[in-house]
Amino acid sequence: MDLNQGQSGERKGETPETSGNSQDHQSQAPAEKPKFSMKIPQLGLSGKKFYMPKLRMPNLKEKFTEYARVLKVTKRPDSVEFKTIVKASGIGITVIGVMGFIIAVIVQLIQTL
After folding, report:
1. Is residue 99 assigned to a domain?
2. Considering just the CA atoms, what is the radius of gyration of the chain in Å?
3. Tens of pLDDT, residues 16-33
4. Where in the sequence is the domain holding 85, given as residue range(s)?
């Protein structure tokens, strides 16, 4: 079916008088919109070859230089900062564990019903 053509045979830009069958056009029900289907290409069937990217080794000297720079910038936390980090991590782990426990209990209750 042509995208510019309706079910009545009328082309885009033509009026019922110019199409030659003005009586047929008036007696028919309103034309439905044409249904479009999009073809999705399948993986591997497109005809294109897959090329594996070339892996290169990182420059080890640059990497160790970056690591050394990071270690120079960092500092050891004092006891107050360390305790704060431990508390925040402990609270986060506890919250996630409680949520997992609640979900596990709900799932078991649903399975028994």
Report:
1. yes
2. 35
3. 555 555 455 555 656 666
4. 81-113
For the chain, the DSSP string reads --TTB-TTSPBTT--HHHHS-HHHHHHSPPPPPPPP-PPPPPTT-SSPPP-PPPP----HHHHHHHHHHHHHH-----HHHHHHHHHHHHHHHHHHHHHHHHHHHHHHHHHH-
Length of the chain equals: 113
How many distinct structural domains can be found in the chain?
1
| Residue 12 located in a structural domain | no
Tokens matching residue 108: 């078991």
Q: Is the pTM of this model over 0.85?
A: no
Nearest residue to 63 (alpha-carbon basis) of 54, 75, 71: 71
Query: In one letter, which amino acid is 67?
Result: Y
